[in-house]
Amino acid sequence: MINKLIANTLPYMPKKAVWILSKRYVAGKGIADAISVVKRLNKRGIKASVDLLGEFISNMDEAEKNMHQYIEIISELAKHDVDCNLSLKPTSFGLLIDSAKCYSLIRQVLAYASLKEKFVRIDMEDSQCTSLEIDLYLKLKEEFQENVGLVVQAYLKRTYNDLSDMLLQAHSVTTPLNLRICKGIYIEPAYLAYKDFHQVRHHFLEDLDLMLKNGIYAAIATHDPFLVCESFELIRRYGVPKEKYEFQMLYGVAPSLRNKIADSGHNLRVYVPFGKDWFGYCSRRIKENPKMVNDIVKALFVRG
Ligand SMILES: Cc1cc2nc3c(=O)[nH]c(=O)nc-3n(C[C@H](O)[C@H](O)[C@H](O)COP(=O)(O)OP(=O)(O)OC[C@H]3O[C@@H](n4cnc5c(N)ncnc54)[C@H](O)[C@@H]3O)c2cc1C
Asked: Could you identify which of 48, 109, 205, 216 might form a hypothetical disulfide with 84, taking C-beta atoms 3.0 to 4.6 angstroms apart as the criterion?
């Protein structure tokens, strides 16, 4: 109850107080903060993916600004020689305002990323974006091959068919698909998405099974210990080599599970958000999962 109370009063709390609650989950405001977190993770043998936090955009000037910011981020990552790729959200590049221009802006990011040998993953957003983002990925993949990836969401009823379609469509392309599988974070209607916790888990594993059987590079993004164990089992069953999969987790979430995965020799990547818009991101995450407050309070008192 206390957690819920804290979560609900967030909008009225001073930003400084919310930052104390949030800093465990966000690297900081600038790319320098993100790079120092990435360096710490890399030292521990953990890879990273940085994500520039942003609020919803309302015009293409903001989209263009985001493109330039991503170019700067890539340049900094390359300068520091860190084991880190990038994640981006197409709506920050104007997907729902001008999809052709959005393609061209993301294409520019990818061209620069390829030059600097950086992989870019397209995050999956809410269901109005699903088809648009799959099309965007397949089109970009024709040009950038293994340097670009997408995300699929196990809670969407369409995902298994989407995977089968993508396998068919990508058949002519020489490099395999590269997909992050996650449960899905947006609130979707029941006719589109499974609502039952166990059903989502079941479809997560069904989708992952299809991915691994068909040579899709799988980025397994979850903090759910059951799914991690079942994924280990699928990887073992199909004899999937280390260069064909990785686990992914969010910065600050479930560190003991994270260490367990890393210590057992699997590749692990941590998603590191940063940016001036940290406040909106953290308020939403804490509202979605008031249990985060427990973790945060613990982090205030327990070091290391
Ligand atoms: C690397 C990464 C990338 C993602 N990218 C996308 C994306 O592109 N599109 C999309 O829709 N979703 C994305 N997600 C979110 C994902 O869809 C889930 O909503 C989220 O990971 C929670 O699901 P879970 O599998 O961890 O299981 P859950 O059952 O939700 O959680 C398992 C355990 O982890 C804890 N936990 C989970 N999330 C958090 C959190 N944020 N803070 C504190 N504790 C937490 C829970 O309390 C629980 O104990 C991503 C997740 C990760 C890890």
From this structure: 48
Longest dimension (CA), the chain: 55
- d(Cα 16, Cα 278) in Å, to the nearest integer? 12
Q: State in Å: Cα 295 to ligand 1 middle.
A: 15
Q: Does a structural domain hold residue 158?
A: yes
Q: Which residues make beta-bridge pairs with 51? A: 87, 273
Overall domain count for the chain = 1
Ranges of the chain with pLDDT below 70:
1-3, 6-7, 10-11, 171-173, 288, 290-304
Site residues for ligand 1, CB cut-off 6 Å: 123-124, 151, 153, 182-186, 221-224, 248-250, 253-254, 271, 285, 289, 291-292
Closest by CA to 153, choosing from 178, 120, 186, is: 186
In a domain, 301, yes or no: no
Would you call 194 helix, strand, or coil by DSSP? coil
**Residue 272: φ, ψ to 5°:** -110, 100
Is the Cβ–Cβ distance between 84 and 283 less than 8 Å? no
Q: How many CA atoms lie within 13 A of 39 on its CB side?
A: 12
Full-model pTM: 0.93
**Does some domain include residue 133?**
yes
42: how many CB neighbours lie within 10 A of its CB?
A: 18
How many A from CA of 222 to the centre of ligand 1?
Answer: 6
Residue 270 one-letter amino acid:
V
Q: In this predicted model, what pLDDT tens digit does every residue of 73-117 receive, in sequence order?
A: 999 999 999 999 999 999 999 999 999 999 999 999 999 999 999
- Closest-lying ligand 1 atom to the alpha carbon of residue 219: 1
Q: Would you state the structure tokens that stand for residue 272, as one six-digit string? A: 């590191």
Q: Which residue has the tokens 């699928």?
A: 234
CATH code, 262: 3.20.20.220
Domain that holds residue 146: 63-75+85-268
